[in-house]
Design brief:
alpha+beta, 2 helices
């Protein structure tokens, strides 16, 4: 089943979006502090991005939190175990680096 072609306007800003991704809302008036009231479906303190298209056109899009995360647990290392081989290599590095010091 093929979806019908969408209006050019909705694909102009986001080629992968469908018309219902950009709902048409009633216009609003800014108050004296330049605040705009979002619709009731948008929770308070939501993260949004504002894209300015020209001097009088903005697109406001709500950013949904990502649920793709992983938790990695790392042990706290207070002291590394003794390793005589690594200590020899580290001492060689230090000797080589100290040759060029004044």
């Amino acid at each position: 089943m093929r979806l019908p072609d969408l209006p050019v306007l909705s694909r102009r800003f986001d080629p992968g979006a469908y018309a219902w991704d950009y709902p048409i809302m009633k216009s609003a008036v800014l108050d004296d502090r330049r605040r705009l009231v979002m619709p009731p479906g948008c929770p308070p303190h939501s993260a949004v991005t504002i894209q300015e298209l020209d001097n009088s056109t903005w697109i406001v899009k709500r950013q949904l939190p990502s649920k793709e995360f992983k938790v990695v647990v790392l042990p706290v290392v207070e002291r590394l175990p003794d390793d005589p081989e690594w200590e020899k290599v580290e001492e060689a590095f230090a000797r080589h680096a100290s040759k060029n010091l004044p």
